[in-house]
From TrEMBL:
Protein name listed in UniProt: Diadenylate cyclase
Broad class of enzyme this protein falls into: transferase
Enzyme Commission number(s): 2.7.7.85
Transmembrane regions listed in the UniProt entry: 16-33, 45-64
The encoding gene: cdaA
Keyword Zinc: no
Catalytic activity: 2 ATP = 3',3'-c-di-AMP + 2 diphosphate
Length: 263
């Protein structure tokens, strides 16, 4: 008890802040790697650290030397093994920090843009024509755009519908939208590595989730089997949406509340 009392008496406000910051960082790191291969690797690292300390206490020198050598060189390898998680974490910080407030959705934003998207989705859904549209936001998608065919045309429901007509050159892949422009078509998207997804979800849905995990893009999917409408955002997918719900979501993208408050 005396030791605890002495420790508390020496505790400064800076120490409390320091501990709180470290605790928050550790919490977010665990949350970030949960459900990924990094979770299992991190458990292995903890075991190695415990064994290293035990071998030092028990004076098992050869084992201690091997474990320390493993940790020394292993930390260099972690940057390679954890590269996807590190990138994902840095992108998460970039999307959620105050720095991003300096960036805006490029392109013109008006009611007609939303109406054209809704009209196209309604027609594609009614005809059960598969489609995948990705709306670019804060995070640039140049790497994805370069995998497809450049269009840079004014967004219209007719153009969107024609792109996804089966057996046409651009129907297979994603359309990238920025503001009121269709930037590119037939783009390849990264597939999600999430293992617990429903078996009903096809390649389009998995691609939509994948791009939403790696960026803040908003993806719209129309199922060619059922015509149902789904959207993916921040690694989550919402399925079986109606057009009014989709319209509200699009308004939140094209006319965010922060913009309305500034006006």
């Amino acid at each position: 008890m005396q030791w605890i009392s002495e420790t508390l008496s020496m505790l400064r406000i800076q120490d409390v802040i320091d501990i709180a910051i470290v605790a928050v960082i550790i919490y977010w790191l665990f949350k970030l790697i949960k459900g990924t291969r990094a979770e299992q690797l991190s458990k292995g690292i903890v075991v190695v650290l415990i064994l290293t300390k035990l071998s030092e206490i028990l004076q098992i020198y050869m084992l201690n030397y091997l474990l320390k050598s493993m940790l020394t060189w292993g930390f260099l390898g972690l940057f390679i093994v954890f590269q996807p998680e590190i990138r994902r974490g840095l992108e998460f910080i970039g999307r959620n920090s105050s720095i991003r407030k300096g960036f805006v959705l490029s392109g013109t934003r008006d009611e007609s843009t939303i109406n054209e998207i809704i009209s196209a989705v309604a027609s594609l859904s009614r005809q059960k024509i598969g489609a995948l549209m990705v709306i670019e936001r804060k995070t640039g998608l140049n790497e994805i755009i370069e995998t497809g065919t450049s269009i840079y045309g004014d967004l219209s429901s007719g153009l969107l519908i024609n792109i996804f007509i089966p057996n046409t050159p651009l129907h297979d892949g994603a359309v990238i939208i920025n503001g009121d422009q269709i930037v590119s078509a037939a783009c390849f998207l990264p597939l999600t590595e999430e293992k617990g997804l429903s078996k009903e979800l096809g390649t389009r849905h998995r691609a939509a989730i994948g791009i939403s995990e790696k960026s803040d893009a908003f993806a719209i999917v129309v199922s060619e089997e059922t015509g149902s409408i789904s959207v993916a955002e921040f690694g989550n997918i919402n399925r079986h949406l109606d057009l009014s719900t989709l319209e509200q979501m699009l308004r939140g993208i094209y006319f965010p509340k922060s913009d309305e408050e500034e006006i």
